[in-house]
Amino acid sequence: MNPEPFDLPFGHYLLKGDSYRMGGNCIVLHGAGQSSRERFTRLRKWLQSQGLSSSSFDFIGHGGTGGDILDTTLHNRTEQAAAVVRHACSEPLTLIAASMAGYTAIKLTEIFSVNNLVLLVPAVYTPRAYDIFFGTEFSAAIRAPGSWKDSDAFPIMSQFKGNLLIVAAEIDEVIPEAVIQGIYTAADSARSREIHVVPNSRHDCLFPTELDFHVAMAKIRDLCLV
Q: Can you list the domains of the chain with their CATH numbers?
């Protein structure tokens, strides 16, 4: 079974996405850089085989959606994801999000009812960067030493009442370990919370072996299908 594609108008763009089941409660959000929803094809196929249908899409500047990422901001990415949730999903949600989209997913918990939050090597950002267009100024804002420490992600997570699973890389050259611990610690009202560190993994190679992939997928399945 292959997911059915959909197009969703968003401003001057057409968000390109697909869904295994329209109206399902799971959405998968990709990160920044060269990423796109295609990177999570294997993950989504595996979850589908376990009975967890998902939707996903390409953020502006990525994959099939294309366009200029410099026209967008972190705030705009939250709005894109929220538009797709309203179009393709139903609440309460399971959010699965990687890297930059980890912050987007955390912001979405303020908008939607979320049962399960799965964060793969998640990033968080200072609120000062939220409305800065991607580019030189944005990079300068987030690369200031310790800029993430005042992130609103932490107080948001303190209000989260669902299940939290953080999948972290053992050797992450992008995300400081303190970010992972900070998200976990802040989520002290969560129904459940866990950090799963994938051995010998890196930010851009989270599952170096098939066993690593299947161990993490089983944790996601067990969290979402209880």
A: 4-224 (3.40.50.1820)
